[in-house]
Amino acid sequence: MAAGLRKRSRAGSAAQPAGVCGQWLQRAWQERRLLLWEPRYTLRVASCLCLAEVGITFWVIHRVAYTEIDWKAYMAQVEGVINGTYDYTQLQGDTGPLVYPAGFVYIFMGLYYATGQGTDIHMAQNIFAVLYLVTLLLVFLIYHQTCKVPPFVFFFMCCASYRVHSIFVLRLFNDPVAMALLFLSINLFLAQRWGWGCCCFSLAVSVKMNVLLFAPGLLFLLLTQFGFRGALPKLGICAVLQVVLGLPFLLENPIGYLSRSFDLGRQFLFRWTVNWRFLPEALFLHRAFHLALLAAHLTLLLLFALCRWHRTGESILSLLKDPCKRKVPPQPLTPNHIL
Q: Global pTM?
């Protein structure tokens, strides 16, 4: 009987650690699910993904072949400015004329000197890798403030995205520079730093004109927050910065600078399209197709302004009034309202 009791006690003592271990594993599994699904864990997941991206990005640089598309053209264009040419109509590269605003020239002029006149591709890739990690951090900070997106989504946004790594470190496009400045401006808007945010937004526009696609939303936010008169100084920051950056080129040939760097009628080549590859080339190049896209874009902006962004019950023209004089005082803008 004593032997039987000893056996049972040994079995019970063995079962107890097994039960504790099982509970610990179950708790760990539950925490892991929370880590993947709960937005409040965004910063923890983001920290791990940023560390993983350090290894992944530098592995891509050393293992995947670099593809030359626009880098040499960028370097040739800024080299013309370095040599004293400030007439935009005279600045050319391998892929054609310079069509980006002055901020692009200054930033890529810095890259020109940092990479041995554009010849040290490996150094350029390392610089863009750091830019990618900074951009990733800015995006994670935005998502952290929304408290809506489950953290597991971020893995597919960065680590599993070949296209993102390609644009940053395998192609060395100017889009990453413009978007990094844009995401910085969004973070500043979320922190209610409207003046600095407008400054960074204007810098982003000065690198590549497509950032202007975000301008209608920014204008609506400024009118909501400050009214027409209060928004004018913020819009003035954007305008003055563009003039200051473009001043050397405006003094030389103002029409040439404005027509090249802010050319709204520029025709894109079919061979470079990605989203519209399924269309016949003749349709893609047809002017009616461009006008239809523009009309659809403006219509959607109007619908969003009337039905989605503006929900106070007043006329949308009330946004032009001072916020203190409106019938319905504006509520403080939350991060989700701004985004």
A: 0.84
Answer yes or no: is 4 within a domain. Answer: no
Does residue 204 form part of some domain?
A: yes
pLDDT (0 to 100) of residue 5: 46
Report helix, strand or coil for 178.
helix
Output the six-digit token pair for 98.
Answer: 């310079």
Residue 55: domain span = 37-264
* Single-letter amino acid, residue 161: S
User: Six-digit token pair at 177?
Assistant: 């520079």
Greater model confidence, 306 or 322:
306
**Residue ranges of the alpha helices (H) in the chain?**
2-37, 42-63, 71-82, 102-114, 121-146, 153-157, 162-165, 175-190, 194-207, 215-252, 254-261, 281-285, 287-303, 335-338
**How many domains does the chain fold into?**
1
Q: What is the pLDDT of residues 102-153, one digit of tens each?
A: 999 999 999 999 999 999 999 999 999 999 999 999 999 998 888 888 888 8
Q: Which H/E stretch holds residue 95?
A: none
Tokens 């937004």 belong to residue: 201
CB contact set of 109 (below 8 Å; sequence gap of 6+):
78, 81, 82
Q: Would residue 62 count as lying in a domain? A: yes
Is residue 322 a part of any domain in this protein?
no
* Token duo for residue 157: 């946004």
Instruction: Calculate the dihedral angle through the C-alpha atoms of 166, 168, 171, 176, rounding to the nearest 10 degrees.
Output: 130
Closest CA to 144 of 222, 51, 33, 47: 47
Mean pLDDT calculated for residue range 311-324:
68
